[in-house]
Design a protein that fits this description.
Helix 1 packs across helix 3 (about 130-145) and helix 5 runs parallel beside helix 6. The strands form four sheets. This protein has a five-stranded mixed β-sheet, with no helix packed on it. It has about 260 residues and is of the alpha+beta class. It contains six helices and 14 strands. The model has no long low-confidence stretch (mean pLDDT about 85).
């Protein structure tokens, strides 16, 4: 039996889900203690004790835990490289990241995933870079809680892996941040985080800002891929705290033209 625990930290809550053999068997949401902003845990000791209590009281398995942080600063690029393995691949991706990405490799945590490339003998790599400070704060938090992390992932790539669709627009619609992921041919070709419009913003304002960013992303992709645009029948897959708001769903349907 394979057990897996996922933890997602947002502005005001910690969400957890427990899987056994790929089936969800337990889940819940608890109010967040301590300060969390822009993907950064500002009180690792406080949050670490809360995490420790959460795992104990909810009897969460701690051997395989995947963490994600909302609002985590990141950058990404696609690189095509010849087929290679091991150290040569690590060196090639690090070298390309230093040339093409806005942060120095030593200032960020690099990770990558391979996809098929159009040219024979090559592979396409989605390379993501997360700034080190939020990652280090998470590790301090987990040390306080006595938890050894199994994996850490971006909400965008996690949701893309769960869709099972060849093409999709995934909108993780939250009160603090919304995450947009464009999936084309099974590859997350576009990823963006949209901050909240502010504590006093109406749902219509927040939805409007999300729609503008979504439109900008889809237009940019279609302009640069005129022979392979996003299909008109591509569905928007909604997740997150605000996904059940009828007004938000209505506005997304009206403003984007995509099915829901």
């Amino acid at each position: 039996m394979t057990r897996l625990t996922t933890i997602h930290i947002g502005l005001k809550t910690i969400k957890y889900m427990v899987f056994r053999d790929a089936a969800a068997v337990a889940w819940g949401t608890v109010p967040l203690k301590g300060s969390f902003k822009n993907g950064l845990i500002q009180d690792p000791a406080v949050m670490g004790q809360q995490m420790k209590s959460l795992f104990a009281s909810s009897k969460l398995p701690a051997d395989r835990v995947i963490f994600s942080l909302n609002g985590l600063p990141f950058t990404y690029r696609f690189f095509n490289l010849p087929e290679m393995d091991g150290t040569s691949l690590d060196e090639a991706i690090t070298r390309m990241a230093k040339q093409e990405m806005p942060l120095e490799p030593e200032d960020m945590i690099l990770s990558w995933r391979a996809y098929p490339a159009e040219k024979e003998g090559e592979r396409q790599f989605l390379v993501t870079g997360v700034t080190r400070r939020p990652v280090e704060a998470l590790l301090k938090t987990l040390a306080e809680a006595g938890i050894k992390p199994y994996l850490m992932c971006l909400p965008h790539t996690a949701l893309a892996s769960l869709t099972g669709r060849d093409s999709a627009i995934i909108v993780d619609f939250g009160q603090d941040y919304s995450n947009i992921t464009l999936v084309v041919r099974g590859i997350p070709v576009g990823m963006h985080t949209v901050p909240s419009s502010g504590a006093d913003a109406s749902l219509q304002d927040t939805t409007g800002r999300l729609v503008r960013e979504l439109t900008r992303m889809t237009d940019f992709y279609n302009d640069n891929h005129p022979k392979n645009p996003i299909p008109d029948n591509t569905a928007i897959i909604l997740a997150g705290d605000l996904a059940n708001e009828p007004e938000a769903v209505k506005l997304l349907r009206e403003k984007t033209g995509f099915g829901l």
